[in-house]
Task: structure prediction
Amino acid sequence: MAGIVVVGAGQAGSALVAKLRASGYEGPVTLIGDEPVLPYQRPPLSKKYLLGDMELERLFLRPESFYADKGITLRLGQAVTAIDPAARTVTLGDEVIAYDQLALTTGSEPRALPAAIGGDLAGVYAVRRLSDIDAMAPEFAAGRRLLVVGGGYIGLEAAAVAAQKGLNVTLIEAAPRILGRVAAPETADFMRDLHRRHGVTIHEGLGLTRLVGKNGRITGAELADGSRLDVDFAIVGIGITPGTSLAEAAGLTVDNGIAVDEQGRTSDPAIWAAGDCTSFVYKGNRIRLESVQNAIDQAENVAENMLGAGKPYAPMPWFWSDQYDMKLQIAGLNTGYDQIVTRIVGEARSHWYFAGGRFVAVDALNDPRAYMVGKRLLEMGKEPDPAALANPETDLKTLLK
Ligand code: FAD
Result:
């Protein structure tokens, strides 16, 4: 019996192998990852770990003993370079490893700036892997000048850490505003103010022409308006691309991610996929979710289905972002929204998204109650009254009745 092989030892891969054992699977399980460390959580990489407020051990999702105790073989520090779906094998260095069923949890890769515009200069960093953070840590000294390229969550979180450490931070966003792809103008306005109050300079609608360097190391940036900025280092947060190359080379269907059916199966019946690398149909659209919650839930669902459960995946999207002392919590997906209702109660604020009159998502800013209630409303399929939401006198819990 060849057993189950899982390629990609991150959030989804770790959850998947744990769930296989929790569900009673007793055959061989092998988890393969190209990073030379135990599977770890990424969110702190742009938050507490980058700030220096979190020990390395606390990043690890499970201790090494967990995998040993559960009889899970870990193969870390080496990439799978090919899948042969006909022979049911994967290639790992000189080895060929057989599988009965294979799961791909290969995550995603940060988009890089092309070398032609200075993306390969020393002092230009991505925020994806532990090794990225460890490499940039020495740059975070007070007074140094940081350029952040990209005003999404990753760029904003890195900017917040740098500002807290006393760096001079400039963030540029080529689109008309920060968080354009993921949040309403109301949420973006709040975030912009928050950053400006902490001394971060934010330029929106301003692209990068190129990074400039001396002796192979970044010294500055030329911006689309012709201005020039002197910088000591740069962080690039311009989105990710799903890790589909193995799947593509193996002939699996790829459509904005490794395409899976409602159970998490790819176009090859013996190969499954979960996490950032996948795309799946949600409310009639093929989407990709880049979140911890999706990685865990989808991986656990796939584990059960590999053992024959036949359970469709029904995501309940939620996400969070920590910047300074502000905690943003998001429940639902705001795709296609056409109305925003703002609720302000003291320091707590929330933005409620409606699409065609239906409640679809909430951004809760330092407002855990709004987040909890919004999440419950979505789970229950209840429609809150916009006027009641906007009224600070409304006790949100009454909306759940
Ligand atoms: P990953 O965790 O990326 O794991 C994939 C693994 O597979 C990687 O180790 C990769 O190197 C490996 N791999 C790829 N190809 C191969 C191969 N051929 N052979 C072997 N190994 C391979 N989400 C939230 O919900 N909230 C947050 O606040 C949040 N903050 C984030 C902050 C940062 C800095 C980052 C980078 C992400 C953040 N996310 C957040 C997103 C979240 O971390 C990801 O959605 C999640 O990690 C996806 O899990 P995954 O297992 O699909 O991919």
User: Anything to note?
Assistant: The chain has three domains: 4-109+240-306, 112-236, 325-400.
